[in-house]
Design a protein that fits this description.
mainly alpha, 2 strands, two-stranded antiparallel ribbon, elongated
Length: about 140
């Protein structure tokens, strides 16, 4: 499994908003400059986050984006699943039910299930608040 730039940038975008939350909206232009990511690409990603209710937009000259919840209420898994879809390592584990005809005789299925569970265990345990804390410990230097 490989996380795309959309997933990585969504995480950076959310973290940037959380880091610069002083009660005023954070502008995409400022995030783009700090993160060195195209503002056009960030606009596409913020649209997804906005539609899902992860952020809210404030219009006008002093507008921008604010988180709708506290950083501890967002997990890395929530953000990645929104932008990436399933985090399953193989196609047969992407849905609720494994409909693979070979599953009864698939020796490797257990490997894929354990890998899926390990991935979910990590991304569902780490919150945006954890990332904020880690960035403070490292002097705000982070790369996702």
């Amino acid at each position: 499994m490989k996380i795309s730039s959309k997933g990585r940038y969504a995480l950076r975008l959310m973290l940037d908003i959380a880091q610069h939350d002083n009660g005023k909206p954070v502008r995409i232009k400022d995030i783009s400059s700090r993160q060195e990511i195209s503002d056009k690409y960030l606009e596409q990603i913020i649209s997804i986050l906005n539609k899902a209710g992860f952020v809210r937009s404030i219009r006008g000259p002093q507008g921008g984006y604010l988180l709708t919840h506290h950083p501890e209420e967002y997990t890395v898994g929530m953000i990645l699943r929104l932008t990436e879809g399933s985090l399953a390592p193989v196609a047969c584990l992407e849905g609720e039910v494994n409909s693979c005809l070979r599953q009864e005789n698939c020796v490797t299925l257990r490997v894929w299930e354990e890998l899926r569970d390990a991935i979910n265990g990590v991304v569902d345990r780490i919150t945006l608040a954890d990332l904020l804390e880690w960035s403070r410990e490292g002097g705000d230097n982070y790369c996702i």
